[in-house]
């Protein structure tokens, strides 16, 4: 038979026209088609196979198929002709020599799906029979188009079926479409990756119901989908709760929830196909925590101002939290919970994250399930919470508020009136909540002429009468000064301020009352120029530290009072600061001798800052007012505001840390260039704000590489010490967080930018502790020029010689006029005179003059810009260190340091904290580093410093919020040890000599601090320097013993010590003794002011205080049980947490909640116990093993689920501890991974049920080897909570061991472990590419050696899905350099499985 001429586009067009004519002729004969040799249909069908031959281009194929499919789908053509032509097309595609393109197959299949009539009725041909031979020819894009058509048809048929009550034709069509889909997902012929299908379902299926209905007939597909999702996701992540202030939830692929379903998004984005349950308990836990708003916003990906639709899921969980705390009976215990719930409710409502009406309706529905007798206490708190929301939103629609009537109908139908509370505490005020809400609703309805068909509840009669009477009294007597500290006053204030004004009242009267009310609380703390709002009472003044008069009001508004007023009231008070500052600025400008603000004012402001709503308002106002204060020379306000920010910010929210540092640095930069009168004190507290803010930075601040500390404006040449402190903080925290590619790039660019503005380098001891890339960078920086001691010494000696030779005041003045041209030498000249006089014994004489020209010295210092004074101090320390290095005896060194102490403590020329900071951070070179630390050691041993430290410990309480007379104690200290921030020309500033010329210097009151408290952040730097320098342990221990109690005033002792142990782990891991001493000093002295076992567990405290702690080789297993249980109960069962945590007000503490505190303090203990990393990890894993044993075996389904849920939560608790420990602890887990890899189930080539082995719950139920899945899950829990650091360690270990694996099971285990965590490295493409390369090479090597079997088919399928997911999700193979050699190197058994992988990357197979 002669070969047929190949079809072309032109020949197809011609034959279709012939077919049209033939079709018209055929229509004339309804039952028969004339058979003839020239029948165009027969000729076309015979020539169709030539269309898919080698001689036809793909473009020709696609255009010809387009013509044929258009003809087939034309409803005007004969059905018999079109069906016959379609069969011919299918036969051509099924031919062995067919080389059809994916587009051609797609067009044919779409034609089948869109044909009129059931395709399966075509000569009895089933969907699978014609799909199986051609489905593999499709690429990913074409497969998605086919799947979209199938799903669309099924969903359409389902809707039609509902309307037609399951019409038979509709059922048949729907079944055929399902058969078509079944042919697509059949694992043997099609091999379509489930990853492709699941990702397409995200786009095609509306919700979980549609997904379940569509896939229900395909049990095998459902099982396969779950298996794939288990490999690609972290199983049971719903039980892994994040920790506020520690866990970084910014990784969208690891922590993101679907806004509607509140379910973790699967790796494929298909939340309703995820295996895990919605993490409802986790959302409720977050809602209950303070300062959690940024966490749940990140998890739900909602932003204020951008997310304007209420989240039904978030509303449900908010209501669930309310219901959780509405049934309690302990009023005092319930109230703190409702304070936080109210704050969250208001925040969510103002940000439009929830709908008020919807929340109230859901509350009403939830109340139906709770017996009314369980609501006696909680109902009042609920109404108090609702009232606070309404009070903040006075502009809302009245109709929205009226929905609250149903709450009254459900909760308040008691026959007897509820008595008026005695207002003995703040929670008594909340009992007025229902009355507040009722009066507000009724007044609002009357104001807006809204009819309300309901009667006043009988049980609220007395409460409502009290409120109405209080409103009338408030209008006539707005002051209430006599009761301003009583809870009853807070109850009255709530009555009127948040109430709507009726039309028969003068509107101005309410606003006038609001102002008067607010000023009645703070007016007595202002100056006498208050004007109309000034208090009529005469308030006396007292002499504050600094010799300044302040109003004699030292008692601030009590926390009970502030807790009792509504959020609206606290916001009003916070906003009043703006006008207060403006009035005081104006008053001080007009009358400089005005009395300063009272201590009560500043302490009240600090307490308002403990509330999240008012904190943002206050910090914003302070930031706006600082330039106005500087412009009007109101430096006392500037200094006190910075003192407030430095010493009254126990917990600094992450969104404000960078803002405060930048704000202080900008002001610091402005003040460095000139010296207004009295600015030195303001500068001191600017330094404190900067240092303490830097001290507060933790790992959460480096969740992205755009850290608060990377702002270029922070790195000023005139602030070298701050620059070095900022850089050291960045080095320390980025090392803890992990140096992935983006972080390394950020560090390199940032260092280059800083180096350009401020050239600097570091000593060898510091450099040796820094990350490798930082060491490399500074290795290319030329070393600084050495201090020219000889030339500087010559100049100093010449000035000193001339001064000692001067006998008259004029001669001294001429020397100082010359010295004025070299101001940087001023401190050196003074110090050298003191040293010479000390050596000669003149300094000890009764009438000795310590140095010549004190008045001229004071004049020079006063005229110097502040940055010049810092330069002079650096010159002095360089000069002193170089001079001390030449000393040969301890007496000589002590004498040099004593002269420095005189300049600090007696003459007030140098600030002590600045001297310490410069000495610690100055780059003296390796030779002089030990000398500098020795000087610091001697400074700390100075009697003057130790005496002030002892007095501070004796007088000033570290837990300042519990002291009723804190200001009095500060005054008592300063009367004994007054502080002067600048030398005024008198050698004895406390007893000036009559007739001695001295400068009149401005001093401002000190409210919260002294020199000891200002030294706390400097001692942090000192601890790090002692650790870095070898051979200084004796001096280090001496300083800790003498000065350790200074850490009892540390705001963040646990965070500081955790970072220290973590960063310096390599230096401290073999020195358990120094770790114990640091624990005793930094945390132990702080713990003395707290209840027992607040910081330390009982067993650890016994170990720490033991006479011979080194005799303890390891801690008992009970210790690890207790430590894990404490964290577990704080997170999952807070009502069972240690009693000491219940009574603590966390707003004043280092951490915002008990969970974060338990995590960090527990980590400190684990890093300072005997047994090393192996013993610590073994103890934690041993506790989990016992829990795992209890969860194993069969049982009732509900009991099994609860046991396994608890096991997951214990794993999360252990994972949290391990995530917060240094690398050597995580390497123990990697050793456990190695053991799991080489168990017989993994390392032997056998038919292994890999799905069961890798699933912890299945392995426990089947009582098979569960250690493999357990190890995998513990490592995943650890890395999930950790930053990227442990992920980098895991990838490094993977690279080391992947070359030795020998089975596909081992590779699957590693992929199951690592693939769900790859979202942490989305920006680190180099590491991702290296990981993929290692996997591909290992698969190629193992697959060529391992024989195919039934077991390996399952492994190959899962392995192919994981590889497809990785290469499809992450752009690691854009140039096709990995996939092509990988596909070509695999044996035949893998080819069909990875066909789509090859096509997805553009390769023909």
TrEMBL record:
> What's the protein called, per UniProt?
Mediator of RNA polymerase II transcription subunit 23
Homology family: Belongs to the Mediator complex subunit 23 family.
Coiled-coil stretches, from where to where? none
Cellular component annotations (GO), alphabetically ordered: mediator complex; transcription regulator complex
Keyword tags: Nucleus, Transcription, Transcription regulation
Biological process terms from the Gene Ontology for this record are: positive regulation of gene expression; regulation of transcription by RNA polymerase II
Keyword Transcription listed: yes
Where does this protein reside within or beyond the cell? Nucleus
Mind telling me which Pfam families this protein's record contains?
Answer: Med23
């Amino acid at each position: 038979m002669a070969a047929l001429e190949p079809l072309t586009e032109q020949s197809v067009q011609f034959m279709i026209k012939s077919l049209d004519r033939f079709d018209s002729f055929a229509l004339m004969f309804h039952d028969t088609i004339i058979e003839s040799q020239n029948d165009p249909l027969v000729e076309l069908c015979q020539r169709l196979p030539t269309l898919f031959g080698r001689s036809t281009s793909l473009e020709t194929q696609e255009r010809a198929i387009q013509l044929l499919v258009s003809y087939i789908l034309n409803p005007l053509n004969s059905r018999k002709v079109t069906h016959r032509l379609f069969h011919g097309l299918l036969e051509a595609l099924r031919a062995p020599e067919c080389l059809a393109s994916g587009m051609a197959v797609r067009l044919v299949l779409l034609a089948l799906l869109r044909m009129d009539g059931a395709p399966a009725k075509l000569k009895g041909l089933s969907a699978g029979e014609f799909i199986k031979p051609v489905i593999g020819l499709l690429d990913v894009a074409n497969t998605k188009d086919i799947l979209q058509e199938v799903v669309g048809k099924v969903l359409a048929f389902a809707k039609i079926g509902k309307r037609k009550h399951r019409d038979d034709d509709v059922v048949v069509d729907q079944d055929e479409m399902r058969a078509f889909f079944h042919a697509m997902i059949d694992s043997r012929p099609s091999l379509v990756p489930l990853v492709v299908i699941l990702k397409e379902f995200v786009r095609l299926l509306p919700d979980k119901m549609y997904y379940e209905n569509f896939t229900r007939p395909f049990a095998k597909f459902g099982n396969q989908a779950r298996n794939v999702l288990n490999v690609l996701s972290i199983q049971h992540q719903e039980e892994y709760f994040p920790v506020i202030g520690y866990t970084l939830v910014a990784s969208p692929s690891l922590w993101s929830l679907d806004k509607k379903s509140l379910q973790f998004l699967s790796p494929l984005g298909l939340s309703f196909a995820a295996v895990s349950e919605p993490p409802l308990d986790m959302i409720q836990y977050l809602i209950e925590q303070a300062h959690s708003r940024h966490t749940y916003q990140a998890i739900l990906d909602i932003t204020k101002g951008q997310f304007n639709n209420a989240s039904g899921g978030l509303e449900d969980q908010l209501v669930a939290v309310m219901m959780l705390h509405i049934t309690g009976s302990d009023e005092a215990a319930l109230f703190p919970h409702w304070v936080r719930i109210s704050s969250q409710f208001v925040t969510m409502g103002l940000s439009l994250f929830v709908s008020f009406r919807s929340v109230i309706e859901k509350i009403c529905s939830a109340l139906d399930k709770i017996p009314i007798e369980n609501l006696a206490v909680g109902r009042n708190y609920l109404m108090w919470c609702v009232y606070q929301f309404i009070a903040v939103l006075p502009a809302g629609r009245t109709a929205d508020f009226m929905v609250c009537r149903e709450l009254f109908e459900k909760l308040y139908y008691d026959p007897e009136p509820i008595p008026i509370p005695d207002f003995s505490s703040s929670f008594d005020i909340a009992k007025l909540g229902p009355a507040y809400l009722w009066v507000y609703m009724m007044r609002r309805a009357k104001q807006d002429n809204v009819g309300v068909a309901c009667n006043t509840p009988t049980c609220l009669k007395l409460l409502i009468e009290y409120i109405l009477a209080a409103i009338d009294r408030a209008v006539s007597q707005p002051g209430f000064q006599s009761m301003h500290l009583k809870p009853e006053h807070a109850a009255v204030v709530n009555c009127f301020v948040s109430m709507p004004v009726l039309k028969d009242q003068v509107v101005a009267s309410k606003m006038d009352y609001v102002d008067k009310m607010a000023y009645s609380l703070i007016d007595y703390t202002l100056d006498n120029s208050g004007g109309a709002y000034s208090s009529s009472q005469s308030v006396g003044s007292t002499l504050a530290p600094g010799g300044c008069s302040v109003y004699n009001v030292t008692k601030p508004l009590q926390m009970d009072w502030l807790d009792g007023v509504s959020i609206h009231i606290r916001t009003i008070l916070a906003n009043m600061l703006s006008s207060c500052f403006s009035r005081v600025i104006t008053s001080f400008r007009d009358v400089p001798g005005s009395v300063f603000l009272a201590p009560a004012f500043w302490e009240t402001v600090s307490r308002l800052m403990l509330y999240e709503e008012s904190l943002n308002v206050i910090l914003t106002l302070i930031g706006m007012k600082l330039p106005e204060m500087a412009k009007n020379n109101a430096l006392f306000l500037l200094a006190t505001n910075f003192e407030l920010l430095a010493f009254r910010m126990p917990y600094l929210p992450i969104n404000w840390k960078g803002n405060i540092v930048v704000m202080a640095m900008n002001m610091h930069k402005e003040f460095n260039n000139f010296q207004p009168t009295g600015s030195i004190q303001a500068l001191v507290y600017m330094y404190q704000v900067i240092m303490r803010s830097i001290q507060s930075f933790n790992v959460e601040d480096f969740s992205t590489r755009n850290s608060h500390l990377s702002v270029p404006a922070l790195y000023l040449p005139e602030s070298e010490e701050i620059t070095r402190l900022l850089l050291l903080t960045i080095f320390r925290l980025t090392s803890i967080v992990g140096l992935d590619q983006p972080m390394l790039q950020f560090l390199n660019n940032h260092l280059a930018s800083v180096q350009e503005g401020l050239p600097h380098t570091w000593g060898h001891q510091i450099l040796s502790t820094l990350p490798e890339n930082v060491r490399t960078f500074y290795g290319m920086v030329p070393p600084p020029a050495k201090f020219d001691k000889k030339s500087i010494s010559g100049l100093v000696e010449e000035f000193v010689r001339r001064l000692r030779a001067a006998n008259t005041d004029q001669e001294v003045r001429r020397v100082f006029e010359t010295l004025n041209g070299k101001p940087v030498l001023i401190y050196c000249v003074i110090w050298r005179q003191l040293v010479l006089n000390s050596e000669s014994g003149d300094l000890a004489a009764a009438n000795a003059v310590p140095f010549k020209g004190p008045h001229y010295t004071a004049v020079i210092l006063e005229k110097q810009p502040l940055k010049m004074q810092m330069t002079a101090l650096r010159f002095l320390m360089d000069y002193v260190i170089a001079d001390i290095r030449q000393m040969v005896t301890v007496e000589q060194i002590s004498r040099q340091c004593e002269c420095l102490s005189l300049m600090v403590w007696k003459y007030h020329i140098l600030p002590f904290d600045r001297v310490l900071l410069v000495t610690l951070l100055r780059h003296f070179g390796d030779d002089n580093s030990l000398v500098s630390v020795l000087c610091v050691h001697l400074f700390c041993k100075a009697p003057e410093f130790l005496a002030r430290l002892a007095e501070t410990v004796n007088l000033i309480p570290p837990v300042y919020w519990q002291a009723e007379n804190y200001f009095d104690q500060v005054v008592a200290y300063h009367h004994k040890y007054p502080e002067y921030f600048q030398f005024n020309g008198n050698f004895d500033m406390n007893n000036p000599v009559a007739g001695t010329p001295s400068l009149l210097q401005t001093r401002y009151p000190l409210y919260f601090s002294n020199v000891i408290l200002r030294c706390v952040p400097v001692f942090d730097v000192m601890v790090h320097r002692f650790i870095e320098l070898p051979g200084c342990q004796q001096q280090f221990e001496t300083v800790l013993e003498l000065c350790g109690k200074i850490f009892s005033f540390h705001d963040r002792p646990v965070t500081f010590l955790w970072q220290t142990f973590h960063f310096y782990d390599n230096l401290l891991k073999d020195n358990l003794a120094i770790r114990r001493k640091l624990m005793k000093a930094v945390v132990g002295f702080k713990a003395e002011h707290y209840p027992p076992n607040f910081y330390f567990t009982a067993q650890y405290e016994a170990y720490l205080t033991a006479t011979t702690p080194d005799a303890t080789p390891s801690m008992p297993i009970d210790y690890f049980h207790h430590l894990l249980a404490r964290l577990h109960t704080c997170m999952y069962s807070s009502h069972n947490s240690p009693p000491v945590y219940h009574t603590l007000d966390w707003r004043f503490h280092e951490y915002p909640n008990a969970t974060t505190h338990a995590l960090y303090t527990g980590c400190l203990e684990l890093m300072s116990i005997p047994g090393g990393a192996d013993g610590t990890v073994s103890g934690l894993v041993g506790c989990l093993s016992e829990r795992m044993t209890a969860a194993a075996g069969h049982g009732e389904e509900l009991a099994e689920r609860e046991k396994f849920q608890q096991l997951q939560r214990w794993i999360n608790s252990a994972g949290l501890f391990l995530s917060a420990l240094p690398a050597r602890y995580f390497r123990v887990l990697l050793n456990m991974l190695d053991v799991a890899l080489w168990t017989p189930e993994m390392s032997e080539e056998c038919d292994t049920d890999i799905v069961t082995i890798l699933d912890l719950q299945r392995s426990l139920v089947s009582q098979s080897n569960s250690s493999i899945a357990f190890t995998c899950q513990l490592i995943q829990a650890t890395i999930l909570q950790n930053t990227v650091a442990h992920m980098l360690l895991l990838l490094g270990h993977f690279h080391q061991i992947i070359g030795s694996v020998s089975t596909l099971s081992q590779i699957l285990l590693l992929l199951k472990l690592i693939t769900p965590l790859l979202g942490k490295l989305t920006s680190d493409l180099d590491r991702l590419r290296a990981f993929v390369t290692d996997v591909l090479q290992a698969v190629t090597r193992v697959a060529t050696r391992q024989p195919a079997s039934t077991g390996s088919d399952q492994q190959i399928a899962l392995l192919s899905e994981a590889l497809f997911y990785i290469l499809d999700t992450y752009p690691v193979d854009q140039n096709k350099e990995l996939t092509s050699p990988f596909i070509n190197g695999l044996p035949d058994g893998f080819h069909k499985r990875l066909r789509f992988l090859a096509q997805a990357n553009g390769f023909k197979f």
